[in-house]
Structures are given as C-alpha cells and as structure tokens.
Amino acid sequence: MNYRDELEAGRDAFGHLIKVWHERNGWSQRVLPALAERLELGRVHNSQLSNLRNRKLTSPGPELFVALGRINELLAAQGPAGLSPELEQQISDQPELLAALQSSALPLLSDSDEALGPAQLFEIFVGLRQPPGAFDLRIDVAEAAGLSAALAELLTAGRPWRLCREQLIAAYPGEKRQRRERFAEVMAGQREYSAEELDAELADLRRTLAVLGAADEQELSADQFLDLLRQKARLLEQPGQGEEESDLAEAIRRQLQA
Fold first, then answer.
1. Model's pTM, two decimal places?
2. Nearest to 168 by CA among 151, 190, 144, 149
3. Average pLDDT of the segment spanning 160-184
C-alpha cells in the first residue's frame, strides 16, 4: 500500500470512528463543539465533524486533533459513577450539554483500554494506526450483498414485500426521494446496497426498527444492529437456507400441487 492509499484508508477509518463514537453515546453533533468551547480545549465546528464522518475533510488542522484528543482524555478521566462534580459544575450553565454527557460519556479507548489522545487520533487519520476494534464498524464491499439480503429478511420478517410495503415505507425516516426509492428496491430484492450506501444508511435503518416498535434504539446499538445483520447473513448463506427454492419451475409445481 502506497502513502496515498494509507491516507485514504486512514480518512475512511477516522470518519467511521467519529461516527460510531457519536452513535454509541447518542450525541448530536453539537456536543463536542460545545464542550470544547466551554472548557477551552480547542475549536471544533459542527461542519468539521460532519465532513469527517462523510470523509470530505481531507486536510484538517492540528487544532482539531488537539481538541478531540483533549476531550476524549477528559471523558476517560471520569469515574465509573459518571461525571465528576467538578465537570458538572463547569458545564452547569449549559443544560443541554450537561444532560447529553450525563446520559452517556463513553471515551474512545484503544484495544489496551487506554484513552486515545491527540497524537493517536492523528495517527489513525493518516493511516499509521488502526482504530480500536470496538469502534471499527466498517462494512466490507464483499459483505454488502449478504447484509442487504439479511436486512430485507429482517425488516419484512420474511413476508412478501407487497404485504408490508406501506408500513415499512412509513417507518423509514429518510426523506430524500432517491433514498426512499433505493430502500424500497432493496426491501423488494430488486437491488442491493453498496458498502458505502449501507454504511450511510445504518443509523436510519436502525431507526426504522424503532419506529416499527420492533427494537428501541437504546436497546439495540449501531454495532449490535450490524452484528445482528452479519449473523443473519451467515445464516442465509448456510446450505438449505433458500437453496431448495433455486429451481423456480419445481417450486411453482409444488405450489400447484399443494
């Protein structure tokens, strides 16, 4: 792998890291900028976080990594009982920020349970360091088709698409017409999500389950949801799962004889 490939892989990994960090804590993109500004840890903008998550920010300044690293080290220093009284006092004048951190303030920890500081975050961004395994939810190109099939099987509960179409379309939170059409095509088995599309859709697909009343977002985290899809995809690939219907003519004959 040459240095350009390493940089590209690093940006991709870092974008996923920031995305999963927010999803696992249930934070909005306002939390980290507000915390950095209130405690004077550096400057982080909402747009920077959005562009990092979408892998559009290719050359962020060092201040971004300093701010994120300091925030992460601060969160890692909090005790198991929650935020320290000192930190709560420091942000008490910002009730929205305080409530978000009281609800969840999980830090980014390495595989050896050490807090990732500015230097470690920068190393991940430039591809010199792998992200922690617990925060690496990247979807491989080779598994996208299987995950798409597993997703359709899960959300339709194995029922024909025409019987649950209206309910699923109503539950899907994506607003753009192109996304809604793509969702319908995947559910109907007419196409598959690419790895990039599936990664971008994961949060809204999890919300679809919540709207349907099948699983609350707090009960099923993003990584648990992805792990569930991977398990289901492996089951669908096992011999006997769908292979008996591979001969369409034979399957139709059995239906006629039933």
1. 0.65
2. 151
3. 92
